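Quick start: read one record
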Amino acid sequence: MSDALRVTLEDGVALLVFDAPEKRNPLTEALMHAYAGAIGQIHRDDSVRAVVLASNGPAFSAGGDIGMLEEQLSWEPEKNRRQMGQFYRGFLTALALDVPTIAAIEGDAIGAGLTLALSYDVRIASESARLGFTFLNLGLHPGMGTTHLLPLLIGDARAAELIFTGKLISGNDAAAIGLVNYAVPKSNVRETALTMAREIAGKPAQAMRLAKRALVRRKLDGLESALDYEAVAQANGFASEEMRTMIEAWRKR
């Protein structure tokens, strides 16, 4: 288990908390393994009836670790393809859970950090949180199934706008377009998510699991193809001078 991930279980609700606030909860390889391991344990625990993902600090997740991205600039394309495919599949393991999941987005969710929240059934965000899919701002093709999951949620046109512009929107604006279910004051986000999870945990377990499986099928259909394409596209990005230039500019800022 990584020091950057805390897991507790109470009253049938598993609470996962990213806990690297000083680094804005980046999605590192160590965190991926810890997270996938925790999801695997939850999957095997019949006492879990609902899952909440939250985070400590000013950011839900700032997305990919910039140090890891810089290191990958020197890798061969095939190594990047394999690495990103494994990395993103690890962070998408919650899709396979047969219990409802809720993402409590208390702070900024950027790039893959926001895509991670798309793998959850319900999203509750802080009104003031900044949310955006900023992959292209770094010269990198979107990953973690963004090109598959986002259009399913908000439609092709809105998904195209958010991906192509890489702009950040507020939690309130995200709720208005259906990217999140609710936007509430930051101090209320986690408790709102936990209250909903406790209510869900009190429902008949078998019927709930069957309903969850039915709802998630559409997300899973076509996801593998999207992940394979994204991994190849990202490998090409890491090999480009364009991405190297954009990351150097990001570092200077």
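The radius of gyration is 17 Å.
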